[in-house]
Amino acid sequence: MADKVFRVMLRMQIKPGMEADFERVWLEVGDSVTGHPANLGQWLSRDLETDGVYYIVSDWVDEPKFREFETSDGHLAHRQKLHPYRSGGSMTTMTVVAHLAGAAT
């Protein structure tokens, strides 16, 4: 399955003092992503070295289905709810080529 997973990683810079609100809203609207039939899951992580920086990773069954979601009305509504908290960001896409499970799994 790893060779078919399409991964998207967003780096988001959040406006100072708005981090807690951003996290709350991200959780509230997250099902608009995870509810898509092609989504395999997503994670929100906070950078411990740079204030206000978050990473969102989401896995998809393939790139075409992600691109379909990316241009959907649902995704636009999701982005609009998070936009007030952002001061910058970037997106990286990739294909998972291998996965090694850790001993704790």
TrEMBL record:
InterPro entries, alphabetically? ABM_dom, Dimeric_a/b-barrel
One GO MF term attached to the UniProt entry:
monooxygenase activity
Domain of life of the native organism: Bacteria
Which keywords describe this protein according to UniProt? Monooxygenase, Oxidoreductase
Class of the enzyme per the UniProt entry, highest EC level: oxidoreductase
| This protein's name | Antibiotic biosynthesis monooxygenase family protein
Q: Which PROSITE patterns match?
A: ABM (PS51725)
Q: Where is the ABM domain?
A: 6-94
Which species?
Kutzneria chonburiensis
